[in-house]
Amino acid sequence: VQLQASGGGLVQAGGSLRLSCVASGRIFSNNVMGWYRQAPGKQRELVASITSGGTTNYAHSAEGRFTISRDNAKNTVYLLMISLQPEDTAVYFCYTHHRYAGRSWGQGTLVTVSS
Known about the structure:
Layout: E1 2-6, E2 9-12, E3 17-24, E4 32-38, E5 45-51, E6 56-58, E7 66-71, E8 76-81, E9 90-98, E10 102-105, E11 109-114
Parallel strand pairs: 2-11
Antiparallel strand pairs: 1-3, 3-8, 4-5, 4-9, 5-6, 7-8, 9-10, 9-11
């Protein structure tokens, strides 16, 4: 599976961005798609995930500000981020996970939030 993320950029504090990630290749149904992020000097952390059935899971830091969604017909997962803060600055990685196929990662897209 190949994943192509896009939508990162520079935004002022309080602004918003929408990340997209398109999966291609041998894609299994009933998978989980989601986003991790890695800030400079920190470990990669889960931001949000969504099952093929639409069940979502959010990190505490993302609840109320970020919304994950997916379009199964387009094999695409989205992350709408509002009220961005400087601490949200990180490289955001999309992923897909299937219990038999394992996990695949996208290349990452940089989000920079200026104060």
